[in-house]
Design a protein that fits this description.
heterotetramer, A: mainly alpha, Protocatechuate 4,5-dioxygenase, Chain A, about 55% helix, B: alpha/beta, Protocatechuate 4,5-dioxygenase, Chain B, two-stranded antiparallel sheet, 9 helices, globular, binds fe (iii) ion, LigA_sf (chains A, D), Xdiol_dOase_LigA (chains A, D)
Chain lengths: ~140, ~280, ~280, ~140
């Protein structure tokens, strides 16, 4: 199916969903839904009935479920981009550290403490998760 | 004649803006960051630029996936703070400089940069947080602003090399503008950070310090860093640093560092700031 | 492997589309123009491209002065005919080729062309009239289309040289796409015409014939024509011809002319058409 | 006022209004008004009461008058671009030849015949109008 004959050079970076064309195509409507929350009137309608509001966007059922369940990692795997999905976190009143903790499997407090201690260390060989990377979800 | 006199590189973390807006800058978490900004603010108050060209990225505020410009130059007279999901920041509107901005647009396009010309766009934290960092909370921003919005969300952003070349072309364009203007260029975003995925929270202080050193020691080499290196070593959002290369390209080869500040963390980002001056 | 096999240069005058839509092509005014299109249609029917990259300009339909991209590449799955003031043309929607288009976008940006990536845009006569010229009135257009929209309304458009270089980069990008695809590139707009001002109606047949000759005889020289020469000699709207340079750049240096047609007038434009094939 | 210290190289081309930055700034709202006529609902409102509809756009009084009087040349001189102002001609059901004739001081029939005869000839030294060019209106 794909016209590309090789894996992208960033394909081996663990726990990282590079928002390339393939990813962007998959997540187009999911991200456009998230962006719609920039508008106060949309936030109100979404707050009143999330599932009804989501019908405005042709999401896959997996995407719809990931939104309703606030499955932050799931949204990324289904084509979400963090700048878009974070609109939903803003809507929920969550901080970037909270969501960062949820995506990396630790609590918000643990995440904050990790950052205060200098952040997640970079190591050439780091392997934060076998499930990460750019593979299809 | 208009002239670029200096460049500022700075992170643009939204939480920094929120700390300013909600009066938290003296709290223990924020104090080490903001105390390091003081000297840069003093420098700026003395430098008194007429215009700042602020290279930033939009974060799904003005632009969406419908239309994704690589380089969007704001030629309008005014730009309003964007609603990013919690209402617009209560900061002054940004006053543009349409005459210089149009001159830049014409000059850059004829110089074979494929600019998108933008008359109307709200500006988000990517542009307003650097203003807060450098100017605090004035009634009005103390200079005009030409927004230069770079795509760094949709892969691929422009290469570091392309950004560096754009900076050089901006310098040439500014110098061909007849009016006397003191122009400063801001490169914003970064430094190392990753917001997304299982690897969220990545910081690479060594990368960041090498980057800050390289801005004066060997910017040509810095301009060659490929995207995959930024993503791998500085985190997926660390690639925002290509925007600093526009700023660096706009300065003379022998520009001098006059101040720097580096602090971890600001939210989940390594916050860096550097001031460079043309000799 | 995908391959560019041929290029088509053609005017995209709205009245030509209206003549097709309203069944007037056999009328005495239009017959000389349309009879000259026959051979090109036959050629296309035999060439059977899988995809056409159509280089065109938007005429205040999808884009306005709010946001003016220099090069906007359509990566969407479908593009609807635009309402240009009298309701959309009743022609089929244009089916995109998102996979090749995204490949082009990524490749071109990494190759340091500052593309605007567009998922949603209605397409106006600039794109649909060339389809009508080359395909008549089918139920569905016989190939996929990747729209490449060039700003030629807001001065300055990209230079002819930049367009030519973009064409070369498109050729390289297409050849690095693994799927077997027969790709044709359309350059549209022109030829000499001026719609505006006291000089409206300007036609310069000598310029046009030199341009058609130059496409095979010396395209490198053609790429050097500055905007002021187009405007002066081919009319203010004749500068649309830079879009033909994208098409020309996408072909091999030794591409051959297989057909041409030239007729004055179509409305107030000199209508030209040329078919070039890679050897 | 201007930061530019030289006249543009296209400044001597007669009867031609190059839509450069200066021109675009002057005509921004005029052109945006014209573009709004792409939408059927706007066309209906404009048709019902032209002057009232124009109040939506901060036009200068000269621009407003040029629109109401269908002064095609005046619109160009006040920052209009032909692709935008032609939306108004489409609204009026006018052809490009009709408007071309009006702008160049001849009738639609004369304009059509000029085109059939090969168009307005290009001459190096042509001087279609002293009033043309890119000078301020
Ligand atoms: Fe950012
Ligand atoms: Fe056109």
């Amino acid at each position: 199916m794909s016209g590309k004959d090789e894996a992208p050079e960033y394909g081996d970076i663990p726990g990282t969903y590079v928002f390339d064309g393939r990813h962007s195509r998959r997540g187009y409507h999911l991200n456009m839904f998230c962006m719609s929350l920039n508008r106060q009137e949309n936030r109100e309608v979404f707050r009143a009935d999330e599932a009804a509001y989501l019908k405005r966007y042709p999401l896959t059922s997996a995407q719809r479920q990931a939104v309703l369940e606030r499955d932050w990692l799931g949204m990324l795997r289904l084509g979400g981009n963090i700048y878009y999905t974070f609109k939903l976190a803003i809507f929920d009143g969550l901080s970037m550290q909270n969501v960062g903790g949820q995506m990396s499997g630790i609590t918000e407090a643990e995440f904050k403490n990790m950052m205060i201690a200098g952040g997640r260390p970079y190591k050439e060989d780091q392997q934060v998760s076998a499930a990460g990377g750019c593979a299809d979800g | 004649m208009a002239k670029i006199t200096a460049g500022v590189g700075t992170s643009h973390v939204p939480a920094i803006g929120a700390a300013v807006d909600h009066g938290k800058t003296a709290e223990p978490y924020w104090e080490p960051l903001f105390s390091g900004y003081e000297k840069a603010r003093q420098w700026l108050a003395e430098a008194k630029p007429d215009v700042a060209i602020i290279v930033f990225n939009d974060h799904a505020s003005a632009f969406s996936l419908e239309v994704i410009p690589t380089f969007a130059l704001g030629v309008g007279a005014q730009f309003q703070p964007a609603d990013e999901g919690y209402g617009p920041r209560r900061v002054p509107p940004v006053e543009g400089h349409p005459e210089l901005a149009w001159h830049l647009a014409e000059s850059l396009i004829l110089d074979e940069f494929d600019m998108t010309i933008v008359n109307e766009m709200p500006v988000d934290h990517g542009l307003t947080v650097p203003l807060s960092i450098m100017c605090g909370q004035p009634e009005r921003w103390p200079f005009k602003v030409i927004p230069l919005c770079v795509n760094v969300i949709q892969y691929p952003p422009p290469t570091g090399s392309r950004c560096y070349q754009l900076g050089k072309a901006i310098a040439a364009a500014v110098e061909s503008f007849a009016e006397d203007l003191n122009v400063v260029v801001f490169g914003t975003g970064g430094m190392s950070h990753q917001l997304q995925g299982e690897r969220a929270g990545l910081i690479n202080e060594e990368f960041d310090r090498d980057f800050l050193d390289g801005l004066t020691a060997d910017p040509d080499a810095l301009a060659q860093i490929p995207h995959v290196d930024y993503i791998r070593r500085a985190g997926s959002e660390g690639v925002e640093l290509v925007m600093w290369m526009v700023m660096r390209g706009a300065l003379n080869a022998d520009a001098k560092e006059v101040y720097r500040h580096y602090h971890v963390p600001a939210s989940n980002t390594a916050a860096g700031l550097i001031v460079l001056e043309n000799g």
